[in-house]
Design brief:
It is a single chain. The chain is built from 5 helices and 4 strands, in the order ααβββααβα. The chain is mainly alpha-helical. Strand 1 and strand 2 form a beta hairpin. It is globular.
Length: about 130
């Protein structure tokens, strides 16, 4: 006799969880805040040799929009010294790996190219202390 375990749908994001992801996209909150707020539905490690992210929520429809302006804002914050290169790399990695984010369709190639360049070509060990 085999036991059939019904598949259950993962939960949708709560308003608070979605807001944390939206705020992270604009650097209004840090990665630790995202980790805390989404601890029940998301786990990730961007410090590992191979970065990973697992989500356990329904992908929101529509997704959290990411535009060209998000990239301009992030690069400006880096130039101004408000964030480190490590912050920038982890931010780009989150936006690439997390299906809750949706790239603006008119700029999807531009956004994807920039995020890939940031995530894979910059040095995440640069925490701005040197």
């Amino acid at each position: 006799m085999s036991i059939i375990i019904p598949k259950t749908e993962p939960p949708p994001l709560t308003a608070e969880q979605r807001r944390a992801l939206e705020q992270y996209a604009s650097f209004e909150v840090g990665l630790d805040e995202v980790r805390h707020t989404l601890r029940a539905v998301m786990e990730f490690n961007f410090e590992a040799e191979k970065r990973w992210l697992n989500t356990h929520f329904l992908v929101p429809e529509p997704g959290i929009p990411i535009t060209r302006e998000h990239i301009a804002c992030a690069l400006s914050k880096k130039r101004e010294g408000l964030i480190t290169e490590k912050d920038l790399v982890y931010w780009a990695t989150m936006l690439l790996m997390n299906e809750a984010y949706e790239f603006d369709q008119k700029d999807v190639d531009f956004i994807a190219d920039w995020l890939n360049d940031i995530s894979y070509d910059l040095d995440p060990t640069d925490d701005g202390t040197s």
